[in-house]
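hey can u run this one w/ 1,3-dihydroxyacetonephosphate bound, need the structure tokens asap thx
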Amino acid sequence: MNKATRQAVIAGNWKMNKTPAQATALINEMKPLVAEADCKVVLCVPFIDIPAAIEAAKGSNIEIGAENVHFKANGAYTGEISAEMLVEAGVKYVVIGHSERRQYFGETDQTVNLRTLAAVNAGLTAIVCVGETLEQRELGYTETLLKFQTKMALTNISAEQLKNIIVAYEPVWAIGTGVTATAEQADEGNGFVREAIAEVYGKEVAETVTIQYGGSMNAKNADELVAKVNVDGGLIGGASLKAEDFAVIVKAASK
Ligand code: 13P
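ok here u go:
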């Protein structure tokens, strides 16, 4: 398998944006614009928006994801949401280990792994995020860090379960900054992730895994990024809040 046969996935990550009513309006605006997509189209939305988003997306090619999931099945974990709750709500995807959660909410490689296991065991597709900070890049640790984060996140995940894993390479310095990685940097980072998967599961399996790029991907640069051999779509923040921009990115990944 190679890029031509791997499934490209364009996923929006709305972060802490949009009320349920705004979610409905935005999805209604997006639906006709992405109807012809030849890639998977996913919107990962705040928990509170999930019912409205699923209702709005009904009958369209847009699938709905969450932005996090807890690793325990249930119990005294105030404020958390379980995988079972997401599945029952109709959620198909979940973002795990986003750098904002690592940075602001104490997410570690170990909890990323636990959440990933909980998600795939419940039948969700996990979009697992990895990425280096600017400091780590400047010190020359990008490859080491990306491989470590990838392997840690996938600990105890079987080759079979890997079918329900997407990895998103999101350099921290490119998120929400308007500074996009060059297409070469994105391809290289995604390549390190694929190598890490190959080191554990073998090259053949690694070739089947969808690896996205994320970090200031927008309507202008998407074409160049998704054309790269290791870039199988994108995880889109800011540009997923604008229907037309998001549709242009979906179109770029559909070529
Ligand atoms: P931006 O596209 O806003 O840089 O965000 C990227 C991101 O963090 C997606 O998860």
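The beta strands are 9-13, 40-44, 62-66, 93-96, 125-130, 165-169, 210-214, 233-236. anyway lmk if its weird
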